[in-house]
Structures are given as C-alpha cells and as structure tokens.
Amino acid sequence: MVEGEASSPAFTIDYAVATGDWPAEDVLRGLVERAVTAAAARTDGPLQASLSVLFTDDAEMRALNARFRGKDKPTNVLSFPAPDSMVPPGTPRHFGDIALGYETVSREAKEEGKSFEHHLTHLVVHGFLHLAGHDHETEVEAEEMEQLEREILQSLAIGDPYA
C-alpha cells in the first residue's frame, strides 16, 4: 500500500493506494487536488478540512458496499461523510472519506469512451459532492447534482460526463 498526503488550498488530503493498477502517485495526487479544489469552490463546505481518498480494487469496494450500503456488489465510488461531532474544538474538520474501485472505474471509462483520468476526476468530484451533502436519491436531486458536476468539470476542461 502506498500512502501519502497532499494539500489543496483548503484541504489536507490523505491518500492511500491499497491495490489496483492505478496511475502513478503524482498523477493521482494532482488529479485529486484539482478535483477537490474545483468542487470545494462550488460548495458550502468547510474552509479548512482533511479528506481521505482510498484507491483500491473491486473486491474491497464490494466489501465496503455490502457493509455500509447493504449492496453486495462492487461500485465505482463510495463516500463516507465524517460527522461534525468527531471534531475536537479548535481542530480542522475531517470532511470524510472517498473510496474508488479500479476495475469498475476502468471498465466504465472504456465502455463510455472516456479517458480514465477524466472519468476518475468526475468520480472524485461526485464523491466530494456527496461529502458536501449533495445526493441523487430523487430526480430533482439528481438533476441538481449532475448540473453541479458538469459545471465543476467544465472548469477543469472536462466534457459533460452525462452526454
């Protein structure tokens, strides 16, 4: 497992590459920093916070999805918002954790004719928006979240992921 830390203007980002054929650490770090910085600029999240990102494989994503969502199948991204009650007074808030599954991310990018990096950036943005309280349980919520994703990705020169 490769672990490290990076900082965006408002976030300290801890990352871990557990398993999977992920790009090099510096590529992942740059991608996550750009995605988080762009998404944070468009949300009402905290001014300072920490965030953890786990790059793993479908086996671990399946286990996490089963444990926390009751769905016994792998998924591309999972988000785990940190409760505010976990923050000791005077310390930066831990915003939450994002986990990404390599095989699903890779397969989806190929099936949808997208670059792996663009699809991964989209999923980091998507996961971050979940941490910020956005959801897509209803059609209205989904439309609002997807539009926000489009705007954030456009600011990163990435095309509409839903086109």
Fill in the keyword field for this structure.
Collagenase (Catalytic Domain), 163 residues, 44% helix, single chain, 5 helices, alpha/beta, five-stranded mixed sheet, globular
Short overview:
With 163 residues, the protein is of the alpha/beta class. The chain is built from 5 helices and 5 strands.
Structure in words:
- It comes from Chelativorans sp. (strain BNC1).
- Its EC number is 3.1.-.-.
- Belongs to the endoribonuclease YbeY family.
- The structure is a single chain.
- By secondary structure, this protein is α/β, with parallel strands linked by helices.
- It has a single domain (2-155), classed as Metalloproteases ("zincins"), catalytic domain (Collagenase (Catalytic Domain)), CATH 3.40.390.
- Helix content is 44%, strand content 21%.
- It has 5 helices and 5 strands.
- The protein has helices at residues 25-40, 58-69, 102-111, 116-131, 139-155; strands spanning 2-7, 11-17, 49-56, 77-81, 93-101.
- A 5-stranded mixed beta sheet has the order 1-2-3-5-4, sandwiched between helices.
- α1 (25-40) links the parallel β2 (11-17) and β3 (49-56).
- α1 (25-40) crosses α4 (116-131), α3 packs across α4 and α4 (116-131) packs across α5 (139-155).
- The relative contact order is 0.16.
- The mean pLDDT is 90.
